[in-house]
């Protein structure tokens, strides 16, 4: 079942009583409000790192199209990608026509796209790479899609700054098991229906910058927020 797509589509159609939750494999869970996917403006750290963008823009993991709509209001051409058919239907219903269903990790999935002045990996979508090696592969896949002066902007979480005991314990268990500290195993629940487990990676800014350097990128700006969440801009060297 397309859990996230169903939740977004139903929210767009007026549903306000069903809950979307995200569960971690240690039992920790928290709400993932669909309303957040319909925000009128980027979050503060997203807006700061974006600055005054020029198009075209590629939004990977576009969800309900909140960034696509914000860009369109400013006359900036933008293409949205997502694996969720429900999310893409929601985008289209909201007026975002240039959206594609694609798995960015699948070989050849992005063939024919670009070049883009900015590629967005907001919503911590750099974590799609799952492992440091996978994130490196993702960056190398995206590099040819950029204009010569193009950039990748992403958000992630510095798990070292998450002080809640559940997060500290989870991080310590990852390290003890030989996994990256920011490794997570999640699944979504919508109104009692559960989706499959999936792996995700949070990268601290220092690790992200070092990893990007091995892929031909330089971290040119970092913006912190809340304080564990941050945004980073990468440009090719």
From TrEMBL:
Protein's UniProt keywords contain Transcription:
no
Q: Where does the Methyltransferase domain start and stop, copy by copy?
A: 57-150
Biological process (GO) annotations?
methylation
The protein's name is Methyltransferase domain-containing protein
Which Gene3D superfamilies does this chain map to?
Vaccinia Virus protein VP39
CDD domains registered for this protein in UniProt: AdoMet_MTases
Recall the GO molecular function terms of this protein's record: methyltransferase activity
The signal sequence is: none
Pfam families xref list: Methyltransf_25 (PF13649)
Q: Which keywords, in A-to-Z order, does the entry hold? A: Methyltransferase, Transferase
> What InterPro entries does UniProt report for this protein, alphabetically?
Methyltransf_25, SAM-dependent_MTases_sf
